[in-house]
Each structure stands twice: as structure tokens, then as C-alpha cells.
Amino acid sequence: MSHKPVIALLGGGQLGRMFIENALRYDALVHVLDPDPKAPCAALAHRFVPGRYDDRATVLAFAADADVVGIEIEHVSVEALEELVAMGKRVIPDPRVLRIIQDKGAQKSFYADHGIPSAPFSLLDDGRDARHHTDRFPAFLKARRGGYDGKGVMALRTAADAEQAFAGPCVLEHQVSIAKELAVLVVRADNGTTVVYDPVEMVFDPRFNLVDHLRTPAQVSARIDEEARALAERVANAFAAPGLYAVELFLTTDGRVLVNETAPRAHNSGHHSIEACASSQFDQLLRLYLGLPPGSPRLNGHAAMINLVGEGGTGEPEVQGLDDVLAFAGTFMHLYGKHETRTGRKMGHITVCAPDAGSLDEGLALAKDHARVVPRAHQEHEPTQR
Predict the structure, then answer these.
(1) Which residues in the chain show pLDDT less than 70?
(2) Whole-Å CA distances, 223 to 43, 251, 257, 264, 283
(3) Is this prediction's pTM over 0.70?
(4) CA 121: distance to chain centroid?
(5) Tell me, which fold does domain 120-174 have in CATH?
């Protein structure tokens, strides 16, 4: 490209913000489309357009002058992406891949068709039909489309639970006994070569069904580590298209590794890579977009990532405990620039890098004990906010 390449990004949340922070080191322009005029990317993008990324006409108009089109959220107009490919634009992920990923039922069927192990499942025309399948409980009911950050998923243990099931096409996934939840990032280049990151171990917050924290190297055996890497690479190769694939995995209590879900984009499970790896997930995306060689996924020591999730209600965000957390060597703060905190909303994250597992435990505990994002308490004498 003789001119500065233009990357059109659909979605302006924290993933886009962190992508732009890295992309500023390169000679590329990043344009962002998001319906929220105060989205985290709004102040950083070279061009920011308020608009719906799930609307075909809006996406086509927005990306008309772009060289590359990417996403930071799955729920975008695949039809528009298909037309952009036909126009000769570079689109990552491939719309064919995204069409599968957007539909959890199609995604599960894709794994089955390619011999990729995952939890047993059934496809339901309507979630309320789960009441006819109580013999398969305990199970999880997942909406086939639209779920995100724990939304669109419910546990079914009894017939009474089934009566509360949501409507619409769903996946009924039989519950397996889980020892640990893991994730592996895989970068697949145009020529089919792959680089694979170290598996991370994820611990979930049951209140919100979000990742509370992760750590890497995962505390698993060498056999499980290798099996997790190999399975994630199989998933990326099955999709057979260039991209960044975040493959979430279950390690069962009987020692099996199963695929849970895949995200064809930067992912919460890879945030630690900004400080902890030779090339971050966001650097890998930039390289993919521009057709540059993949970076090294090498992990430099031990690392953890703690999600900062809003608590205590809604309001202007205030971060508490920063002095204590940042006094620990190897600790890095990332705030996402969201103007309003809400209970359960991701507001930022903390990365801890350490030379050994013991030091990592210390930094992880410190961050979890002290860091909080709460609504700012306004005093009565304070002037009215403009």
C-alpha cells in the first residue's frame, strides 16, 4: 500500500481501545464505528462514527474507503462483511467463520462435524422445549444468537428451572464435571502457519458469569498443557482462514480437554499478553490486518490478569485501592475510559507479572483485595456536574 492503510473497526469498546493503543506505534489509521458516541474508542480513533455495526447499509458506508475491516464484537452485519470481501477488501475474521461463530448451535455442530471434542449437546427450536428433556439435566441452556459476557446462558438443574427457560432457538448443553477452565490464543496467518500462546487458567465470578481472574502458565500437567495447545490449533485450522482465535476449553475431572467456545477476535483471556508476552494479542491483530509476519507468543515469566468489574450500583466511576496495588512491582493498570460504572460491567483490568508462581500469588491477592470500581460519592456541597 503506497498510502497509510485504513483499518475500519466495527465496535468501539475496550478491545478496540487497546487495539488502537498498540496500532499507534504503526503507520496505520484506525476508523471506528460504534452506536455509543462516548464509547472507549471515541477519543482515540483517527475517525469515529456513531452508528450501528449490525446494520448492513451503515457498515458498508462506514468501510467504503477502508483497506481492512475488522471486528471487536461478533454481533455485526455479516452480510455487509460479505459484500466488502466481494469489493476486494481484506476482512478478518472471514465472514464465513463469523457466520458460524455467531450461532452457538452452528458452532457446536461445526465442532462435531470436524471431530473436535466438546460437551454433548442438543439443538432446540425453542428454549422452553427444555422441559421435555429433563432426563438430560443438569445442563446449560444457551441462546443460539446474541449472548455475550455471560448473558443468554442459564443453568438447568430441575423441572422448575426449565419453566423459566427463555424463548427462541437454543443449545441444550449437557453439564460436564469441570476441574478447570482454560483458554488458548491461536494466530493463523494467510499461509496457514500458526503461533500458539501458553494456555491460561480462568477463574469465573459466579455473580456475573464473567472471568474474575486468569493466570499463566496454567497450573496443569505437561500433558494437559500440550493437549490444550494442540486442540486450540486444530480449531483454528478447521476454520481454515487467517485470524486470531481465542479458544475456550474445559478440563474435565476425568482428564479430558473439550472445546467450549471460540471467539474470532481479541479476547478477555489474552489481555495479559500486553505486558507478559513478546507480542500481544492486539499486536498480532495489527500484523494480521496489514499482512505482516506473526509476532512471537513467548511468555516472559508468570502473569495474571484481574478484571475490574463495577460494583455498588451505577454512576461516575471511581477506582479505589490504586496506591496499594501499584506499589507491587510488575503491576499494570488498564482503565477502559467508560463514563459510567454499573454493577457487573467490565471497567478495566490489572495485569501482574512476576518471576515465579509464589510472587504471582502475592500480587494477585493484593489486586483482588484492594482494587475496586464503585460509583463516585458526590458530596452535597459539590457543584452540579455539567
Answers:
(1) 1-2, 147-150, 378-386
(2) 45, 12, 11, 26, 29
(3) yes
(4) 23
(5) Dna Ligase; domain 1 (3.30.1490)
